[in-house]
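As the work plan foresaw, the team has encoded backbone shapes as discrete tokens. One protein thus recorded appears below exactly as we store it.

:::
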Amino acid sequence: MGLWDTLKPHAKAQLLDVIAWTDDSSNTISYRFPIFDQAITDNSKLVVREGQAAVFVNEGVMSDVFGPGTYTLDTRNVPIMAFFKSIAYGLNNPYKGDIYFIDTTIFRDNRWGTANPFMMRDAEFGPVRVRAFGHYDFRITDPGTFIRQVVGTDGLFTTEEVTKDLKKKLVSSIAAAINSAQIPVLDLAGAHMELGDKVREQFNPAFQETFGYTITSLTIENVSLPEAVEQALDNRSKMGILGNLDSYAKMNAAEAIGDAARNPGMAGAGIGMGMGFGMGNAMGGMMGNMGQGGGQFNSQQGMQGPPAATPPPLPGASKYHYNGPTGQSQLSLDEVVQRITADRSGDHMVWAAGWPAWKSWKEVAEVAGRVPPPPAGPPPVPSAVKYHYSGPTGQGEKTVAEIAALLTSDPSGQHNVWKEGFDGWKNADEVYDIMKAMGGGGGPPPLP
């Protein structure tokens, strides 16, 4: 037996003719094509179907990304030479590389929801705890970035491994969007689409650049309120339907008198007589209000004049139901102002008769106008200034020192910051305080 007869079975086992991937599952995002102890030849064909992308990794480094189509692989300089070199060394060193197939179709109907209620401040009802849930769709739009940043060397990557982390980012983003939109709780039902689009527009650029995927659709199905708030809304709806309670009571009295008069029996006469005397005041009041005197009819004394007017309470004598850090009690305006002034950081709520719900003291003009302005204090130390941060480690509020440490540990990452007064998000290396903390110089900041 000759040398070629010995090598022929091994050579045949190491040559790849067609490289393709067919998958019927609905949750597989990436798949590493098995090429162990196999080599790509000049006759090899790569078939990439619609909704797929192929990523070639050559000796650990990503070399190329192929879209849908059929390709003849020109590997004359590397795989073929490596193959014949492996023959010379007893087939112990065949050419090695990795081929990943990526599903670029839309992965639909992924659920999200808030595990715990989050707080939002409503101008009418005050602080309110709400829950929200819905679904979202996403797809891989940058296969190369997705392989580098997310998949790594994982041979099989599914949607569960993406949605676990993506869901956390979406929930925090949606909670922040609802609070920043400042939409009243009564109008949230009509703003679901607007809020979903706002979250996508705000976070898709970061998702695309950092992870290689894009949120194609985000739906907020419901924002639920606490039972006490829903009960208050139901009561308000009833009041709107009934209208003026005084008119409603007078209408019921008039109908009762008519029903009693139409009853021919003795019981009906007694009822009619009692209703006549009992409802005389109501009917007399209705007739009296039609005249200019505004008097009221009394069954024993006849027509009475209007009651004497009484002066309103003095400004400082107004009583409020108060709830705050010191507990709950009924206080005068002056006492409420004193408690707010003593603890400005506390959550002080007030309520008065006729109000539909508790209000923050800042929403009551009579109270807010009496509270003196806070004493001026020194500006914050630069290292203690808080920035809103978004980067490879996630999003949150961080100090200058914390952001400088993140930049130092990952200088190639995308680090964005924002604080009140900025026109929009900025790269962290454009902010003077952060660069100064990293040792970028102690001179004055650049002119605007």
Notes: Residues 6-13, 79-95 have pLDDT under 50 and may be disordered. The CA atoms of residues 78 and 95 lie 8 Å apart.
